[in-house]
Amino acid sequence: MLQLTASHIDSLAPNAAAAKNGRGLVQKNKFVKLNVSEEGDLLFGECAGSGKSNYVCSVDFLTPDNPVSRCSCPSRQFPCKHALGLMYAYADGLKFEQSTVPEEISSKREKAEKREENKAKRESGELPPAKPKKVNKAALKKKIAQQLEALDELEKLTVSLVRGGLGTANARTAKDLNDHAKRLGSSYLTGAENELRRLALLLEQEDRESGYTYAAEQLTLLNAFIKKGRTYLQAKQEDPELSPDTESTIEEWLGHAWQLSELKEAGRVSENVELLQLAFYSYRDEARKEFVDTGFWLELGEGRVHRTVQYRPFKAVKFMKEEDSFFSVAQIAELYRYPGGLNARVRFEGMLPRQTASGDFESVRSAASASIAEAVKSVKNQLKDPLADRAPVVLLKASRIAQTDSGTFALVDETGAALELGDIYRLPQPTTPLLSLVDPALLEEGLVLAMFEHRMDTGRLAAQPLTLIKDGRITRLLY
Questions:
Q1: Phi (first) and psi of residue 430, to 5 degrees
Q2: Positive or negative, the Cα torsion across 183, 188, 190, 196?
Q3: Among positive and negative, which fits the CA dihedral 292, 295, 299, 302?
Q4: Which pairs from 56-61 meet CB under 8 Å and 24+ separation?
Q5: Angle of helix 190-203 versus helix 171-186 axis, rounded to 10
Q6: What is the CA radius of gyration of the chain?
Q7: Cβ atoms within 10 Å, residue 296
Q8: pLDDT of 164-185, one tens digit each?
Q9: Hey, which of 90, 243, 275, 354 would disulfide with 297, CB 3.0 to 4.6 Å?
Q10: Single pTM value for the model
């Protein structure tokens, strides 16, 4: 029998407005027909609309972790409010008449099953593999030459900034950087384009001391990319069939958008994975001109903390699903892992939720680092690579979180070693002050998910708490 909960349906909705509108249809009794297939894996029905004809909608759970919604309405959102309403009606216990699957859906199911069957046969060798996409070597060489030329121009720009000194930067400097960033995008260097825009924003900050401090780090980052990018592209220019680097982030810096098929071919996929989200937040990234939805998830049984990232361009934000906090365990058939170090980005196409159990929190506890020294060592190892993520996240065991004489907070491990906690530059909101407001029991013998950052002004590592975990309670400080 099909199991649906309101929270699961919320997670399928493209945005909060669609979910609200879907619930509204149920509350207003807009559904004139509610049907379920004999097998219980298809919901279908009719919903009254503003016109003479009803909207015919369905949600197909033939693949439970990736349901397919269909509707005769003109909406470009999937699922639309009618499909969402159909699911909410089922979750609310409304009466669904059992009926045979409509011919139109049966036909679509058969085609989908045939595609999956052929895919499985190709993977098993029963059918020859699909022909690989041919590489246009001439076009690739032309693209690489354009990228190398753009790197040379970027190098001239950064050298000029260093020689002139950041203190001479003004509004004209920021404008020139933004203009140059556009040219980088046209030369297929979108990663560098975003980071050059970020440099311009730092130079425009009202807090000039902080802006210039992080601008210096940004220049170091761009210089490292120029050197590594040039070496990588020159090798690729000599051998156009050179496989992409699936271990480092250099391809993303060079503007490559990884396809799931590429990650699978590189062996960067895990099967039958369970993830528990420990933190989630969204923020506005002016450099990328996008909203960024970020989640940190623990892979149960493996102990790795992964990161999900969704980019929603400002211009297209109303057409894209906004991610949100997720409180159940996500059961995933195939988890795709991007190149990267700690907290490598992951993606999945579908999932089935289940309620958390006591064993899940035992897995969380066993995954946490008991030693501050070991955690700091892993963070420092990542930060040695200038192109790696500059703000890694680590799960730590805390003997206690105590307030110091100076009024700051420190995490103390079982050996007595202490790690000062404080808000960092890269997070959109402070969380450390909230430690004085939470249940004091959470500050004793618990776990802390913390984001680290190398502070350019002090030369030391800083750690900001994202989440407190104890006795089956996950208290998120960031939202």
A1: -75, 150
A2: negative
A3: positive
A4: 57/82, 57/83, 57/86, 58/83, 58/86, 58/102, 58/105, 59/83, 59/86, 59/87, 60/105, 60/109, 61/2
A5: 170
A6: 26
A7: 22
A8: 888 888 889 999 999 999 999 9
A9: 275
A10: 0.86
